[in-house]
Design goal:
- With about 120 residues, the protein is mainly alpha-helical.
- It has one domain: Helix Hairpins (Orthogonal Bundle), CATH 1.10.287.
- Helices cover about 75% and strands about 10% of the residues.
- The chain is built from two helices and two strands; from the N terminus they run H-E-E-H.
- It has a two-stranded antiparallel sheet.
- A hairpin with a 2-residue loop joins strand 1 and strand 2.
- Helix 1 runs antiparallel to helix 2.
- The longest helix is centred in the C-terminal third of the chain and has 47 residues.
Length: about 120
């Protein structure tokens, strides 16, 4: 990296930062998607149960007995909130991927433009 200009070194550093941000977003997205699947499975179980079945809702560190409608409504709200978060992360992911590709092309062009034999 000694023969690479400071501008290209800075671009490479930015590229690494974008890559880390993308990894973080992908991890968060995967966690939210798993939570959505779990909540939907819980909704299916609730819909299969009797209307007077005993149900509990986790409120912090306490489990409280609630009516089926309340538990179902909370799960629906949770799914909607998580889906919004996933959409937001997908937008961020798209923007970062665009920046990543653009920066990658700039770095490649700068390195190839120099004709550096050690370009990788």
């Amino acid at each position: 990296m000694n023969n690479i200009s400071p501008k290209v070194q800075n671009q490479i550093s930015m590229l690494q930062q974008i890559q880390q941000q993308l990894q973080t977003i992908l991890q968060q997205k995967a966690q939210y998607e798993m939570a959505i699947r779990e909540a939907k499975r819980a909704q299916e179980e609730i819909s299969d149960s009797a209307d007077d079945a005993v149900m509990y809702l986790s409120v912090g560190t306490v489990m409280m007995q609630k009516k089926k409608e309340v538990v179902s409504a909370r799960l629906t709200e949770k799914v909607e909130t998580l889906e919004l978060r996933v959409k937001s992360l997908e937008k961020q992911e798209g923007m970062l991927q665009g920046k990543f590709q653009q920066l990658q092309e700039q770095i490649k062009a700068a390195i190839e433009g120099k004709g550096a034999p050690t370009a990788a």
